[in-house]
Specification:
Elements lengths: L8 E6 L2 E6 L10 H15 L5 E6 L10 H5 L3 H20 L3 E6 L2 E3 L1 H8 L2 E5 L3 E3 L13 H8 L1 H10 L3 E2 H7 L4 E3 L4 H12 L4 H15 L3 H15 L3 H11 L9
Parallel strand pairs: 2-3, 3-4, 4-6, 5-7, 6-9
Antiparallel strand pairs: 1-2, 7-8
Helix pairs in contact: 1-3, 3-4, 4-5, 5-6, 9-10
Length: 259
């Protein structure tokens, strides 16, 4: 899918970075099936290219209000299940992308919008941003958005978010581990670029393997995680990037990455 095919997104590339911007401000970037499908296509396309980083951003006053209730309300049980499965496929595609994915958050990120932030590898938010799982004070509980949020903030904080439905500010989100940091609004773009720059240094192949393995480790008990990590790290020692990194260290010279 090329950029001209997107109705709800803007996709562009600047150097080694692909920027995916949600562009449905009149609907608060609500995630209809069409919007989710475009995001999925964009992340798959970005994942298949030679970029080293992906930025997920949004236009308008809100990062994302979550699922589009107009779409949800028009569906029966099977239709809603299909919508949620599509959303889950998107979240998994973000994790599966070999590049570092960073969320650039402004305004509110609620429900599935908060899920998007939690599913990215990294996240920087403007101090004016807010985060919520509002289903706890409504009629449709945030079951699926809670999955990645729980893994970011822990049980008690997840329970507070999910049961009260109340928003937290960006500073609190950083303290809780939902985002990496909150910065003054005017510094948002610079902070995103700075963190992404540090996170994309080194061998691309090593970084991609490392990211995938980290997610696999997080889903396993400690003993199983070590079993996996030992085998992957041993195999990775033979990759060209690892060989070059070790040779450069031993020879006291800057590395020349082969990938």
């Amino acid at each position: 899918m090329t950029a001209v095919d997107y109705q709800h997104l803007l996709v562009d590339r600047d150097g080694d970075t692909v920027r995916i911007t949600m562009n449905r401000p009149e609907r608060r970037n609500a995630l209809s099936a069409e919007h989710l499908a475009e995001l999925l296509a964009a992340f798959r396309a970005a994942g298949a290219c030679d970029a080293t980083g992906i930025v997920l951003a949004a236009r308008g006053p809100v990062f994302s209000a979550g699922h589009d209730f107009a779409d949800v309300a028009a569906r029966d049980l099977v239709g809603v299940r299909e919508l949620l499965e599509l959303c889950t496929e998107l979240m998994r595609a973000i994790e599966a992308a070999p590049q570092v994915v960073i969320a650039r958050v402004h305004g509110l990120a609620t429900a599935a919008g908060c899920q998007l932030v939690a599913s990215c590898d990294l996240a920087i938010a403007a101090e004016s941003a807010g985060f919520a799982l509002p289903g706890g004070k409504g009629g449709w509980f945030c079951h699926t958005p809670a999955v990645p949020v729980a893994r970011a903030v822990g049980r008690k904080r997840l329970m507070e978010l999910a049961l009260t439905g109340d928003p937290i500010d960006a500073r609190t989100a950083a303290e809780w581990g939902l985002i990496n940091r909150a910065v003054p609004d005017e510094d948002l773009d610079a902070a995103v670029a700075e963190l992404l720059g540090r996170a994309t240094r080194g061998s691309r192949a090593s970084k991609a393997l490392g990211k995938h393995t980290l997610y696999a480790e997080l889903d396993r008990p400690e003993a199983d995680a070590y079993t996996l990590a030992v085998e992957v790290m041993a195999a990775a020692s033979q990759l060209p990037g690892a060989r070059e990194g070790m040779a450069a260290f031993l020879e006291k010279r800057p590395p020349v990455w082969p990938d």
